[in-house]
Amino acid sequence: MPLASQLQEIETERLRLRPLRAADRADLHHLFTDPEVRRYLWNDEILPMEQTWAVVTESLRRFAADGTGLWAVSLLRRPTLIGFGGFWPFPARLEILFGLAPVQWSKGLATELARALLRYGFEELGLDRIDGSADAPNIASLRVMEKAGMRREAKSETGGRETLRYTLARDQYQPGKDRYLFHRKTQP
Questions:
Q1: Domain residues for 74?
Q2: Has residue 89 been placed in a domain?
Q3: Along the 188 residues of the chain, how does pLDDT read in single tens digits?
Q4: Helix (H, G, I), strand (E, B) or coil at 77
Q5: How would you classify the pairing of strands 129-135 and 151-158?
Q6: What stretch of H or E contains 56?
């Protein structure tokens, strides 16, 4: 059955993830343009709304095609978007990508999100390995990838920015005991 005809949702101990939808564009744009979020995500550029729309449109296309794309992240029992996460194509490869509103930082939510994404990638998508990267000064994201079980693979420089690359192979992955519920329902 094509992924487009299924509703998907992931629940963790404190988070609910669902694929982004068109109605999320304004909230996502607000998050993308937050100075603390865009600092590392968009090389500190303020994205125009049209570019956020393009991200959502591409995410919808990717979910329908192969299950990759970005999830809207909210706290359980609260529908407000507090972040995003998923798998996104970068020039060299598909990578894990995540971000939370600054008010949600330092609560362990990013690590909880990253672990859920790794589990989805290995268990639902059947990926053989999951890659990720962050600018070297983005200590918080580097630490999240490490806590989630990813290992530093390489260092490179792109556009004058030092980037650290991380990876986790399927045979090194251990899901742990974190709460993870994956719901898939056929749409009526």
A1: 8-172
A2: yes
A3: 344 445 689 999 999 999 999 999 999 999 999 999 988 888 788 889 999 999 999 999 999 999 999 999 999 989 999 999 999 998 879 999 999 999 999 999 999 999 999 999 999 999 999 999 999 999 999 999 999 999 999 999 877 889 999 999 999 999 889 999 998 866 54
A4: coil
A5: unpaired
A6: helix 49-66
Q: Is residue 188 part of a domain?
A: no
CATH of the domain at 34: 3.40.630.30
Shortest CA distance to 148 belongs to which of 120, 126, 128, 187?
Answer: 120
Q: By the 8 A CB rule, do 83 and 104 touch?
A: yes
Give the DSSP per-residue string, 133-185.
EEETT-HHHHHHHHHTT-EEEEEEEETTEEEEEEEEEGGG---TT---EEEEE
CA distance 156 to 136: 10
This prediction has a pTM of 0.92
Q: Answer for the pair 148, 110: CB distance below 8 angstroms, yes or no.
A: no
